[in-house]
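Q: Start with the shorter request: fold the first protein.
A: Done. Sequence, then structure:
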Amino acid sequence: MDVAIVVVVSLLAIALHVVLYLLFRRWMDRDLALSFAGDDPGKRDYMLQCLQRAKGAGVRRADLPAWLEREAADYRG
């Protein structure tokens, strides 16, 4: 019985860490996109749409900053 408790608690701890990792990564990507927008509300919406397009297009996470920077430069407000 003790082994089962240890296994269940360990699996729950691992699951919690995975969820937190994915949430933090999503927040970091969102903050990165918004950092290119500045204070312009229209550009903020545009950059969030660009972030969704990047995820849909399969842009690698390592390439995301450069991709978002190019999209920010193409913004026509």
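Q: Next, the second protein, separately.
A: Sequence, then structure:
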Amino acid sequence: MNGTSLEPGRSIGLALSGGGVRAAAFHAGVIKYLAEQRRLEDVLHISSVSGGSLFVGMTFQSADNRWPTSDVYLKEVHPRLRRVLTTESLQVSAFLRLVLNPLNWRFMLSRANVVAQAIEGLWGVTATLGDLSNSPAWSINCTTGETGRRFRFKNRTMGDYDLGYAKVESFSVAKAMAISAAFPGGIGPLTVESGNFEWEKREEWHAAAPTRYELPYRTLHLYDGGLYDNLGMEPMFDVGRQAIKRDGTLPGDIQYMIVSDGGAPFPRQAIPHPLNPFRFKRIADIALDQSRALRVRAFVNFLQKNPMSGAYLGIGARAEDSIRKFSTGREEVAAKLLGEQWLSPDESKTAATYSTTLHRMSETSFDLLARHGYETARWNLEMM
């Protein structure tokens, strides 16, 4: 890739945000660009939330529970993702399983369980965590209702740093994906009986080894990872220090970190009436947007000091405007890129404002979002 800091051989960390099928399609386009550059082989760690977790889970499933090579992604995985997302509605399937199967009525308040059933039955994700390849490492991020911490599934273990960790080789990948997308209200949590697992925890942060630990909660309520960090950055990026982590928690050093953000831009609009139940949702959205914005600022500050170490790929960015904005000192690359056809500002806006849902997409919508993700990756990585 001429003109980019993402040189062959540099290890890559991918953080894939939440945002329902909108984010999944956007990420599909980002990964397509990386595959065309033969860079999927250099991915060392993947961290995902919600729609990002749905995308990664489908990607592993489509490649025999392995991270695909660049050729396999282009020839097999990407076409299958397009077919699945445009022909099958995870949301409808989960609703029908909840309503029509009396055995599922017990999950009325914890509907992530039926979402997991739909992922397994409709998408064919039948693997356990133990079936997945160890490399690259995949952090499936959730939120623990009891502790408010980032709960994650990674390398056949689950837990958070308050609770400790348990080995879960036989845990369903479909359940982990569903938990990562279990937004409060719309889906609800997936509950886990803590006594079914053996937990270990370090008595102190730098203790040599963990010891057996009995959780103070009989039941854990696990929610969407977006409540804690909708960008999925924390496993790889220290927000406080504004640096890629080098603390031994990763299988190797990440040399280039890509944050693919398919989250919906925060809409500017009048706040609902005090008696309107959506007023509370608006307030919650403000809090979540501010949490996301602080993480984005930390990562962008890191990039300004270390421009050769990563890229932030945000949905909704207008390619031509951005290329012109960053053209100083890169005039030759900018001129080449501006000579090509890009999505219009209206098309980019349409992609960014696609609803956060798990419904089936039209082929037109998938192609628009995937192209937007592809273009956003291309101009960022070739310009920067």
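Q: Describe the second briefly.
A: The first strand starts at residue 12 and ends at 16. The radius of gyration is 20 Å.
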